[in-house]
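Quick one, T. Sequence first:
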Amino acid sequence: MLAVGPTGAAIPYLLAIAAPLGVIQLVISVWALSSRWEDSLVYFQESATDNHRLSEQYRKLASDPPTDARLRFEILGAVMAMNNKTKIVFKGWLALSHDERRDFQNQMTEYLQGSELMQKRLQESLTVSLGPVGGGCPCCGK
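Structure tokens:
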């Protein structure tokens, strides 16, 4: 009869190799979990995305140099300083007409100068779902 697997004489050697490797694997796994490597990974992925975005902006700058390079550089700095939510809102604001922008600015001023109760009520009224919007969100496109 043909046996499959290690012979009886090889088992002690295999255990002598596998046991230390298993302990090393366990130590590395515990170390990875306790030092929160997954948080570092997320940070590095976000950093890589931001670096890629910055690289693309500078490529555009190089391919189409503005007449006023200082102004273009300041615009790039302002865009990179915005977080993603701010960029979405700003992009939506840019899509508004001149009158809509003025109305938005007036509403924002009233909100910021309003009482906490008024601010809370306005926030609550804006969180009411109006259902799916045909064609997606005009601000973010989703």
